[in-house]
Design goal:
The protein has one domain: 3-Layer(aba) Sandwich (Glutaredoxin), CATH 3.40.30.10. It is built from 7 helices and 4 strands, in the order H-H-H-E-H-E-H-E-E-H-H. It has a 4-stranded mixed sheet. The protein is globular, with a radius of gyration of 24 Å. The chain starts with a helix and ends in a 14-residue tail after the last helix. It holds the Pfam family Glutaredoxin. Keywords: 2Fe-2S, Iron, Iron-sulfur, Metal-binding, Redox-active center.
Length: 153
């Protein structure tokens, strides 16, 4: 009976556990709703082209060494520019965070080929050095065909 009167003023101002749980569950539901919307947009972007790279900057002006390296590797491999789409995560802070959650990969750049997450810069470089990337890109038919030499007679 006297418990309420014995509470300190700080305890009465502090939200009780039930109210805190209700508030946090509303926030989680709200975040989950936004996250689902973002996930749908990301999935749509990934499905739009055979090769999708989420990077910092643009292919012409990469704003990070890892993004620059990823673009250089894809260029060396001969990826068809018509089949590739890049997204600058620095232009959209929500995308920058959501793509990391989507792939469960903490770093940028992130490469997707035919909807499959390949990895970041370190994985691209490793696959490139081992020859695995060339095979993978050929299997997915995203490399430009070699130029045929025309003989002049």
């Amino acid at each position: 009976m006297f418990r309420l009167s014995l509470r300190s003023p700080i305890q009465t101002l502090r939200p009780n556990a039930a109210a805190a749980a209700l508030t946090s569950s509303r926030l989680v539901a709200y975040r989950r709703f936004l996250s689902q919307d973002s996930k749908a947009k990301i999935q749509e972007a990934i499905n739009a082209k055979p090769v999708v790279l989420f990077m910092k900057g643009t292919p012409e002006f990469p704003e990070c060494g890892f993004s620059r390296a990823a673009i250089q590797v894809l260029d060396l491999q001969g990826v068809d520019p018509v089949k590739m789409q890049t997204y600058n995560v620095l232009a959209d802070s929500e995308l920058r965070q959501d793509i990391k959650e989507f792939s469960d990969w903490p770093t940028i750049p992130q490469l997707y080929v035919n909807g499959e997450f390949v990895g970041g810069c370190d994985i691209l470089l490793s696959m490139h050095q081992s020859g695995e990337l060339e095979k993978f890109l050929n299997q997915n038919q995203v490399i430009l065909p070699p130029e045929t030499e025309t003989s002049t007679a």
